[in-house]
């Protein structure tokens, strides 16, 4: 567990060094790679977070999904139970800012059942090449991925790839990593 915390801290320190232009360019490059994926083309419902720096930016991905007629679902977390569910999100829907500065849907937004989400874009801090990840430490996605049968993809900066951690029994890998084509 300690190795994960150290690696998370070190990786976030590196990512936090990015200036805004670099951040936007690197995020845009990863988004373009995502749009070429078959799982993206086939999905009519995607689950995705509203990212905060230094996570790969997702606002343009969400806009693109809407332009392509996809339904977007964003997570609503329950910090007491460390669980989450996804709710339908449309342009101009109200959002609430929760712990750690995350924006989430209000209780008015309809819940999208897990089995309806065809593609889940899974965030993380550190990724192994085999799809295992270190998240932000809450375990929300590992719990949600248990029993999830749709496609999973994570978008990764090259700085986020590491083999310096061992997955734990409860860790679940994503099916596909999209790693930026050009380093910085």
TrEMBL record:
Top enzyme category: ligase
Name residues in a coiled coil: none
| Keyword Nucleotide-binding included in the entry's annotation | yes
This protein's cofactor list reads: Mg(2+)
Keywords (alphabetical) are: ATP-binding, Ligase, Magnesium, Metal-binding, Nucleotide-binding
Reactions accelerated catalytically: (6S)-5-formyl-5,6,7,8-tetrahydrofolate + ATP = (6R)-5,10-methenyltetrahydrofolate + ADP + phosphate
- Family matches, as Gene3D superfamilies: NagB/RpiA/CoA transferase-like
Which Gene Ontology MF annotations are present?
A: 5-formyltetrahydrofolate cyclo-ligase activity; ATP binding; metal ion binding
Q: Which domain of life is it from?
A: Bacteria
Please give a single GO biological process term from the UniProt record. Answer: folic acid-containing compound biosynthetic process
Residues where substrate binds: 50, 55
Instruction: Tell me the InterPro entries matching this sequence.
Output: FTHF_cligase, FTHF_cligase-like_sf, NagB/RpiA_transferase-like
Q: Where does ATP bind?
A: 4-8, 133-141
Q: Which SUPFAM superfamilies does the record associate with it?
A: NagB/RpiA/CoA transferase-like
User: Recorded E.C. number(s)?
Assistant: 6.3.3.2
Question: Which protein family is named in the record?
Answer: Belongs to the 5-formyltetrahydrofolate cyclo-ligase family.
Name the record gives this protein: 5-formyltetrahydrofolate cyclo-ligase
Native organism: Listeria booriae
